[in-house]
Amino acid sequence: MMRHLPLIVFVALLGAGPLLLPEFTVTLLNYIGLYAIVAVGLVLLTGVGGLTSFGQAAFVGLGAYTTAWLTTVYGVSPWLTLLIGIALTAAVALCLGFITLRMGGHYLPLGTIAWGISLYFLFGNVEFLGGHTGITGIPTVSLFGWELKSAREFYYLIWLVVLLAMLSVRNLLDSRVGRSIRALKGGAVMAEAMGVNTPQAKIVIFLIAAVLAAISGWLYAHLQRFVNPTPFSINQGIEYLFMAVIGGVGHVWGAVLGAGLITVLKQWLQDFLPQLLGQSGNFEIIVFGIAMVLILQRARDGLWPVILRRLPLRSAGGPRQLVAAEPLPRRARPAPGSVLLDASEVTKRFGGLVANNRMSLSVKAGEVMALIGPNGAGKSTMFNCVSAVNPATEGKIAFLGESTVDLVSRDIARRGMSRTFQHVKLLGQMSVLENVAIGAHLRGRQGTLAAALRLDRGEEARLLAEAAQQIERVGLKEQMFEPAGSLALGQQRIVEIARALASDPCLLLLDEPAAGLRYLEKQALADLLRKLRSEGMGILLVEHDMEFVMGLADRIVVMEFGEKIAEGTPAEIQSNPRVLEAYLGGVESAA
Amino acid sequence: MSRKLALAVLAAFSTAALAEINIGVSVSATGPAASLGIPEKNTIALLPTTIGGQKVNYIVLDDATDPTAATKNIKKLISENKVDVVIGSTTTPNSLAMMDIAVDNETPLISMAGSAIVVEPMDTKRQWVFKTAQNDAHMATAIVQHMTDKNVQSVAFIGFADAYGEGWYKEFAKIAEARKLKVVASERYQRNDTSVTGQILKIIAAKPDAVLVGGAGTPAVLPQKALKEKGYKGLIYQTHGVANNDFLRVGAKDVEGAFLPVGPMVVAAQLPADNPVRNSALEYVNKYEAANGKGSVSSFGGHAWDAGVLLGAAIPQALKKARPGTVEFRRALREALEGVKNVPGAHGIFNMSTSDHQGFDQRARVMVTIQNNTWKLIK
Amino acid sequence: MDLQIFLLLGQDGVTNGAIYALLALALVLIFAVTRIIFIPQGEFVAYGALTLASLQAGKIPGTVWLLLALGLVVIVLDGVQMLREGRYGKLPSLLIFNLGWPLLCAAVLFALPPGDLPLALQVLLSLLLVVPMGPMVYRVAYQPLAGASVLVLLIVSVAVHVAMIGLGLLFFGAEGSRTPAFTEVSFELAGAPLQGQTLLVVAASAALIAGLYFFFERTLYGKALRATAMNRTGARLMGIAPTLAGKLCFTLAAAIGVFSGILIAPITTIYYDSGFLIGLKGFVGAIIGGLASYPVAALGALLVGLLESYSSFWASAYKEVIVFTMIIPVLLWRSLTTRHVEEEEE
Fold first, then answer.
1. What are the angstrom distances between the C-alpha of C229 and each of A201, A211, B322?
2. Across the strands, what pairs with B376?
3. Are residues A133 and A227 in the same domain?
4. Residue A323 included in any domain
5. Does the residue A468 lie in any domain?
6. Where are the domains of chain C?
């Protein structure tokens, strides 16, 4: 209950607002609500997903123009045009997203500018949409015969939408799909390796942001009862982004705060500057620009985090308690001794550089295979080839008897291979529990809509319970609710193992799991790996700690300069002259 | 505290006792239409502060050429400032956006935009809307007339890619067609484009006898300059939107010889002494230039002045029927505005009626040409 | 469309493209060194052109007041810090650059009637008035935000752009200005007239690009900037202060902007808000160059200029639609063929 208190207070204030506030304040709140809906979409898209879009105003325009045209020319009910507008916007967003979301880096924002400008000029040049002059006489909206004509009445509709948008986005982010979305920014490679379809996740948030914008446009058209292209220009698109960033682009509440702040500040400047400086000039935008620079200099993450820090309440960062839940089903285990992975003649080139040259190795169920060699020998490259994070140039890799040549890393993950990374890839802001739960991504199936409507709680509890169980298993129960970024590096490596285990793999790829661990921790890790082996799991291990490797591995492959120089049991390897030479020659670098 | 309260009570009382008239103004003083909105804003400062013995307050807001801001402004003017009438806005889209709110609150709206759709076709909504700027059609007729007099057979159009250019093209094309003038090319450009070479080459390739440039202010120079540079020898027409000194300054010798229709105030001093608009136009020109410097007057400011002229004529009538600040007053004001007859403004003589809320006749336009870098009345 | 029209359109496209290319270079430079997407780049174009126009009209340009104000803010910000840290030795140079310089400019303006000066001096004066604003803007707006994310820096850029547009309207009014041509010469090329001024734009742009190349390859400061662009941390370890690099590249970018403005002011009309669209098209070029490659950025800008020119002939109402829709496949192609670091930011 306490957790929901701020929300309840907010809703109560919202509900009472129009009864107490003067007319124009209600009008301003209406506009703030309209902007906030778009900004909430941007929080999801840009703040969380890391995809910067300047083109949201064009989607607002699509929603607004659809209803304006259909209601004025064909007399279609506004409620029907809302659905049509959403469908149309979703279709357009799907096409645009399909093209532009493939762009990486700085190409994407410019891509959004490009179609934002194109759509804006299309609105202005299409004769039946009223050209640059616009469409007048858009009807008001009626709800069960109640005509929402005044600002006070429309207020409730707008803020209902704002609340629903905020709640569903917050629900979504706190779910299986939400975790994969939160991994897009800074963790896409990891997410793919955990089975997340990242292009699909990008499209999903792009669609949600576009649909929210279209709904805002629909509301705008019926509030304003007039549309022309001006409010859907690239400048307005930039302004939406502005609102989200000033408010705090990583936070749903930041969107509302930003929209409110900018609208109120502009109004306030318009009221007070002429009194201060006289009517002759137009100082509003100058002061506004300077004020924005100052705000960002004081609070570069936006204002919402600043407010959060001042509040006594803890911010609600994901789940803090676990609900008892039925364990998730496990996949069928391959028979011990059967071949899980068979890589032969694998070559990987980066331009002219050959990182792996005709490497071969295999891993069986119920064995620990270690891959060792001096730094730069190409071990991690081999890992990336096997898990298809960075596929091989040539050669054959078969997992469970199936060639992986056409598979991407998430397909391989689905078939039961999971891995950790040499350079830890955790999402530092998220709790250990949530990080590990990403590993269980493929073991759930509830989608975006179910998450937004909270219909996924049963499955979510099972996923989190599984994650918690794996965390306990690796001995990090105490740190379960801490942000992953706050852990020591060695512990972070262990979290990676828990995450990999959460996917219920039959083959586990561990890239230097013991680095940074203390002696006792190493022993605990070795015990864990032995136990996993005894359960029939195959483990492929890259490790520099020879004592750890020799005490654990069943077989060892030694690499040097991208090639295999030896293979055998620990005892054979320890007496292999070539290995000794390689290691003696490379003692300094291998240390 | 108590003193403050007393003052507030006193202030409230005095307003009630004097029944001041509040006039809301929303102009596009920034954004793309700033060159139109700024002289309008400057003109508001010259309007009378008492009408019919009552004190008049003007509340001026900027809408940044954005219809959303214009709507916000009129909502604020009506709900916060309790205005009796709203003057605004500069552009057609902004005026259209403000219309519904004015109607819902039974507040007369006096627009300064060009397009006739602000006041036509007359319906229950447009009852509340008046307009001081000549309709584009009104001006376009003068251009077409001049063209046919000059034996022009074919004409090309190049205008802004916005509501201004669009409105002009629609009206012009309609009238030109009726008068058997062939429109052989229709091109658009952005107000702050750095080049119109492509459009001009296409126009020249169509070999028109005349070209009409549908732009406002200094941006209308570029097409004419490009036409000259590329060796175009036909007639060049501009719209009344260019009638300010900056256009002459930037255009210099490139705009020599252009023809355009303007409100008579632009050439007020050249009008014959018996012209009915001459005195009222000169009054505005002199006042504006006294306040803002010689040669600073532009035809757009005149529209704001004319809004003041209309109110100056209508408010005394309305005052007879009701007190300012009431809906009865606003209704009476609307009726009085509709009944304005033979009132000379800066741009022409207003004769309003229930079906015509613009009120100008052909006395509100004259053809001028640019000669020696000044506007020259064509007799 | 005959050959003559084709050539004229090409010439027009190259002229505009040359200006976009200059701006693209400035944008790439600033981004590579500071990770700022410098949206106000276009404002320097407008400020430069309009300051020159004011001087020619015999008026005191408003930019001189802005220069004085910015200088004072810099002095307050840096001066307080220097006094606190006891670095008194640096105070004189701070005062000279940020107060002495603007005062000198103001004095010159008030002492001499600017309208009567020869053109070359007017151009020089415009450069001296506007270019110092580059490093000042960096100091005041961006330096406190070093290390912020690209998105935050971008939003700050938008805010600076908004403020500068507002100031531009205040200084120069809503109407545009044009300056007299530097040359009235006209040639003929394959039957199409070729303005001397157009040729001058292209030649000057090419010369400036060559000059920049020389600067980066041959001079110490240029090499330092390149080093910072390649590896910020490394450059700091090598003793190149990031703020110095930032100020340096903002000075260069401002100079490029003002120079471009002065170049095109005679062939078109410049308004207080002209900069944004010109800058945006330069930005398109810069992005095509991946915000990293100077030659590709220049080519991209040229492409934008040509696209714009030809589409304004074919369907002028749809010009922007065509230009920006055609950009999308180019972006897609560039994005898919260049490797970029995906996980650069948390």
1. 33, 39, 73
2. B369
3. yes
4. no
5. yes
6. 3-337
- For position A553, which CATH number holds? 3.40.50.300
Q: By C-alpha distance, which of B118, B45, B57 is closest to B88?
A: B118
- Chains A–B, number of C-beta pairs less than 8 Å apart: 88
Assess B173–C contact: CB distance below 8 Å, yes or no: no
Cβ <8 Å between C175 and B244: yes
Q: What is the pLDDT of residue A131?
A: 85
Gap from B238 CA to chain A (nearest CA, Å)? 20
Asked whether residue B6 carries a pLDDT value surpassing 60, the answer given is no
* Spatial distance between the Cα atoms of A269 and B72, rounded to a whole number of angstroms: 14
**C166 Cβ under 8 Å from any chain B Cβ:** yes
Instruction: Give the N- to C-terminal CA distance of chain A in Å, as an integer.
Output: 54
The subunits that touch chain A, with at least 3 C-beta pairs less than 8 Å apart, are B, C
B35 CA to chain C: closest CA distance, Å? 5
Mean pLDDT of chain B: 90
Q: For residue A111, what is the nearest residue in chain C, using CA coordinates?
A: C328
pLDDT at C338: 67
Distance of CA B209 to the CA centre of its chain: 29
pLDDT of residue C114: 78
Q: Which chains touch B (3 or more CB pairs under 8 A)?
A: A, C
pLDDT at residue C277, as a whole number: 87
C92: left (phi over 0), alpha (psi -120 to 50) or beta: alpha
Tokens 């939107």 sit at which residue?
B241
Question: Rounded to 10 degrees, what is the CA torsion of A477, A480, A485, A489?
Answer: 10
Residue A407, pLDDT above cutoff 80: yes
Residue B325: CB partners within 8 Å, gap ≥ 6?
A: B19, B22, B82, B84
- Put simply, whether A281 touches C (Cβ < 8 Å) is yes
How crowded is residue B132: how many other Cβ atoms within 10 Å of its Cβ?
28
Q: Which amino acid is at B358?
A: Q
Whether residue B68 and residue A134 make contact (CB cut-off 8 A), yes or no, is no
Residues of B within 8 A of C115 (CB-CB) are: none
Entry field: residues in chain B: 379
Assess whether pLDDT exceeds 80 at residue C199.
yes
CA distance C289 to C283: 10
pTM value is: 0.90
Which of C154, C336, C343 lies closest to A188 in CB terms?
A: C343
pLDDT of residue A316: 45
Contact A114 C165 (CB under 8 A): no
Number of domains in chain A: 3
Q: Are residues A487 and A411 in the same domain?
A: no
- Domain boundary, last residue among A482, A503, A524: A503
Most confident by average pLDDT, A30-39, A279-288, C236-245 = A30-39
pLDDT exceeds 70 at position B260: yes
CA gap C263, C20 in Å, rounded: 12
The string of pLDDT tens digits covering residues B98-144 is: 998 999 899 999 999 988 889 988 988 899 999 999 998 889 999 99
Min Cα distance B79 → chain A (Å) is 6
Residues of chain A with Cβ-Cβ distance to C325 below 8 Å are 114-115, 118
Q: Average the pLDDT over A577-586 and give the result.
A: 74
Domain that holds residue A133: 29-233
Angle between helix axes A489-501 and A432-439 (nearest 10 degrees) is: 40
Which pLDDT does position C343 carry in this prediction? Answer: 37
Q: How far apart are CA A356 and CA A392, in angstroms?
A: 9
Q: What average pLDDT score do residues A36-52 get?
A: 93
Give me the interface pTM, i.e. the ipTM: 0.89
- To the nearest whole Å, the CA of A132 is away from the closest chain B CA by 5
- pLDDT confidence band for C344 (50 / 70 / 90): very low
CB A296 to CB C331 under 8 A? no
Confidence label for A314 from pLDDT (cuts 50, 70 and 90): low
Q: Domain for residue A394, yes or no?
A: yes
Please indicate, yes or no, whether residues A380 and A459 belong to a single structural domain of this protein.
Answer: no
